[in-house]
Amino acid sequence: MAKDRALGIRIRELRRRQGLTQRALCEALELKASTLSQYESGQRTPDDAIKARIADFFGVSLDYLLGRDEFIQPALEKGEPFPVTVMDDSLKNLGVVRFSRLQVQEGAPVEDGQLALVAFKDGRTLVRRLERKNGWVLLIAENGAYETLMVRPRDVEILGRVTHALLPLGREKGKKSEH
């Protein structure tokens, strides 16, 4: 039971770090709310396939998820590509919807008009089309429901350039897992 509790704590911690409700994570992973609640409380253990989906969704190793590793992600070589999960629909007009996964080339130069992964000083990250104008960085959403953000270059760090979309998590929409 102690191992199950550690796993549940990790799942809850990762979910909260991403700012997700249980409902949103259930939707992304196609789980029942009661099942996720049982995972997080340690009352139930996900099967190996679900563990792998959870780790893939959050971009962490299974060792981290299971509490055998304290590092969220393995150390990457400078410039190594890594996946990110889009947590909103700000890129909807490009076909990138909530829970889509994108590949980011760390440290790659980002030209005006390209998609970039950007980090703010408060720890928030987002993917937006980037443009530089008159000493400002414009972070442009591809959905009219989101405003363009205008920030000073010193207030953000460009982490990398989006190179392509990754395949979905391997689940067909509409199929619920009982695990």
TrEMBL record:
Domain of life of the organism encoding this protein: Bacteria
Keywords for this protein: DNA-binding
Hydrolase found in the keyword field: no
Family annotation (PROSITE patterns): HTH_CROC1
Gene Ontology molecular function terms on file: DNA binding
InterPro entries per UniProt: Cro/C1-type_HTH (IPR001387), Lambda_DNA-bd_dom_sf (IPR010982), LexA-like (IPR039418), LexA/Signal_pep-like_sf (IPR036286), Peptidase_S24_S26A/B/C (IPR015927)
HTH cro/C1-type domain ranges (all copies): 11-65
Gene3D superfamilies: lambda repressor-like DNA-binding domains, Umud Fragment, subunit A
SMART domains linked: HTH_XRE
PANTHER family documented for this protein: HTH-TYPE TRANSCRIPTIONAL REGULATOR XRE (PTHR46558:SF11), TRACRIPTIONAL REGULATORY PROTEIN-RELATED-RELATED (PTHR46558)
UniProt protein name: Helix-turn-helix domain-containing protein
